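FORM 7B: Structural annotation worksheet

SECTION A. Query
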Amino acid sequence: MKVLNYFILFLVSCFLFIEGHALEIQSNNAILYNTNDNEILFSKNEDEKVQIASITKIMTAVIVLEKASDLDKKITLTNNDFKGLIEEDLVTSGFMANETVTYRDLLYGLLIKSGADCAKGLVNNIASEEEFVSFMNEKAKELKLKNTSFSNPIGLDNEKNYSTATDVSKLFMYALKNDDFKKILTADSYRTSNGHLTIKNNIRKNSIVGDYLLGGKTGTTDGAGLCLASIASKEDVNFLLITLGAPYDKKGKHNFEDAKTIYENFINNYGYKVIFKKGDKILTLKTKYTKNDKVDFYLSKTIKKYLPNDYDKKDITYKYKGIKQITSKIKKNTELGTITFYYKDKDFASEKIVLKEKQKFSHIKYIKAHKIEISLILAVIIVILSIKKSKKRKKARH
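SECTION B. Predicted structure
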């Protein structure tokens, strides 16, 4: 019995490896999207609540972008903006007290340098830190991040500052809809408005991950480990990846190694496959009492699906739901039903079936279909007429 159990376990393991292209990563939590289709391609402990370190600054940037009416407004940094940063050994971007900068300058430092000085400067010019954190948590509720809580705008380890890979992905997607946020995140470098600093985007130039990496936000603390929220693109496929909780090391490589493993698995082993081409015949419906015996329907668009290169065509199916028989009463351009396409019983595309031409009624086909009934009726009529004629003759004789 034990041998059988081990054998079954072995088969299941093989199946999971083949079908899921099993990935070994160091991060405890991860989620990858194909953002073209908003489809999850890979996940690991994606709903576990964990510390997220400076990934927190994504929300900080969102609040600033929505609260600051003019990103080019000049503000002056004060000693208060740098208070406690050295003592807590936090990363800074190189700004100085009494320096005049803009919100935009600080946002670049916040997102591509993860500067705690930028976070402090931005927050202190928007509201008190307590009020700002309140804004962050209100936004989390608005975005339905049910497993997320913020206690500070920097990402310091705190039991009340946590999220999940799923929630972070939702927040990241929302942030990327803002043109300024995306421009900052994907910039190669930025020269501050006063010319004091040139901020380089080391994530885009990361030597571990390939040139498909467009940008991202890192996060590192003892409690959170190494974290990375990133976006990538290759051959018109756009990806969004969150990895959290990779083992901490001073070189900070494990999160990028995981990003490389995950991205390249899908870049090398997956792609968009043409399932059906535009113009392919996809359905034939029978008619009733019309001149045509049947009506063929053709695809109005090409049906594609992002799939493993070694996918089994047997896993692609489609079903039609709608009117099964066409009559002359159905008007031209009537929507008859819908064809839904499935991969492994999960729908991924659909096509409306529309009657392009009205079908003409056929008297001949109607008569053929009802010849017995019509013959009987005619026979009855003939009998009735014969009886009437016979009665008239009898009356004439009398």
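SECTION C. Observations
Residues 1-20 have pLDDT under 50 and may be disordered. Residues 371-397 form the longest helix (27 residues).

SECTION D. Sign-off
Analyst initials: ____
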